[in-house]
Amino acid sequence: MSEQSGQERTEDATPKRKEDSRKKGQVPRSKEFNTLISLLSAGVGMLIFGREIIDDIILLLRDHLSFGYATALNEASMSAALLDACISTLVLLSPLFILLLCTALLAPISLGGWVFSASQFAPKAERISPIKGLGRIFSVKSLVELVKAIFKFIAVASVTVYVIMLALDDIFAMPLLPMEQVFGTTGTLFIWCFLGFSSVLIVVAMLDIPYQIWDFNRQLKMTKQEIKDEMKETNGKPEIKSAIREKQQEFARQRMMTQVPTADVIITNPTHYAVALRYEQFGVGAPKVVAKGKGLIAKNIRGIAEEHGIALFSAPPLARALYASTEINQEIPGNLFLAVAQVLAYIFQLQKIKSHTRVKPKAPKNLPIPAEYQDVINKQFNSSANSSFNSSDQYRGNS
Questions:
Q1: pLDDT in tens, 268-286
Q2: Where along the sequence do coiled-coil regions lie (predicted)?
Q3: How far apart are CA 368 and CA 41, in angstroms?
Q4: 226 and 85: one domain?
Q5: HEC secondary structure over 172-195
Q6: Domain extent at residue 39
Q7: Is residue 5 one of the residues assigned to a domain?
Q8: Angle, CA of 34, 40 and 42, to the nearest 5°
Q9: pLDDT one-digit tens code per residue, 366-395
Q10: Containing H/E element for 278?
Q11: What are the b/e assignments for 21-50, b being 16+ CB within 10 Å?
Q12: Is the separation of the CB atoms in 187 and 12 below 8 Å?
C-alpha cells in the first residue's frame, strides 16, 4: 500500500500494529541463536551422560559383535541381533535426544516468546508468486543470510581442519589402538570441534539477534497515512469524536442543572459566573460545589435558583476563585473556608428571619480571598470585561 502511494515507511510501528503482527505469528526470530542453544545443550548433555553413554556403547558393541559361525550364517538370527542392537542404542541415546528435543522447542521462545497462529499455515498467493519470489531472493535479508552462510562455512571448515591437523598422528594411530582408546581419542576430537563450532556460533548469534530485531522493526514501520488510518479506525473520526464529546458535555450540564435546586446559595459574579454551593449543617464535610458555569450557563443557574427561591449572593472574587479551584461535586479548598463560611452564615441568618421576626443581618463585605487566587480573578475579570465591551460595541453598531 505504501509503495503504491509513493510514501516511505518512516514511522515506528504503533502498539496496535505490533499486536496485530504478533497475532499473525510474526515475531523476531534468530535461527543462529536457536542453533547455538541446541549445540550448547548437546554439549551439556554429553558432559552429563557422555561417559555413561560411551561405556554402554562399548559393552553393546562387544555383546552384539560377538557371535558364532552358525549365527553369522543364519539370516533370522543376524536380523534379530541387528534389531536388538538398534533398539539398545536408541535407549542409550534417548536422554540426549529428549534434551535436544526440549531445547529445540524452548529455544525460539527466548526471543519473541511463544506464539502460535493458524494464519502461518494458510496458503498465500505471495508465496507462489514469481515476482515476490525474485524480490525475496534479491532482498537485503537474503544477502545477509548468504553472508552468514559463507562465514559459517569458512569458520567451521577452518576449525575442523585445524583440529584434524593437531590430532593427525592420533587419527592415523587409531586402527592400532584398543577400542577404549579409540573412543577416548574420538571424544577428545569431538570436544575440540564442539568448542570451535560453539565459538563461531556465539559470534554469529551475537550479531544476528540485534539484526533480526532491527529488521523486524524495520518491516513493521508505517507510513504517516497508515498511522492516520489506524487512529481513525481505533478512535473514530474527529468529527464523530467531537459530536460525542459535545453530547456528553450536554448530558453533564443537564445533570448539573438538576442539582441547582438542592443548593443553599448561588455565589455570582454577578453576571458572568455562578457557583452553586450546598452545605450539610449537621454533616462532617465541607461545603460542596453542586453546579457552576459562566456566560449562558451562569444565567440558567441563576434562573433556576430564582424559580426555587435559592438566595443569590454577589461576590465576584469569591465566585471566580471557586469556579477556578473546585470541580462539580467536590468540596471547596480549605483556604476558601473562611470566606464561604461568612457567606453561608449570612444566608442561614436570612432564612431564620423569614420564619421569625428579627433584624436583617448585614451582608459580609471584603471577603478574605487568598492572594494565590488573585491572578485567576484578574484574568477572568479582564476576559469578562472584554466580553462585555464587545457586546456593547455590537449593540451600538446594530442600533
A1: 987 889 999 998 877 778 8
A2: none
A3: 78
A4: yes
A5: HHHHHCCHHHHHHHHHHHHHHHHH
A6: 10-233
A7: no
A8: 105
A9: 787 877 777 666 666 566 555 443 433 433
A10: strand 273-278
A11: beeeebbbbbebbbbbbbbbbbbebbeebb
A12: no
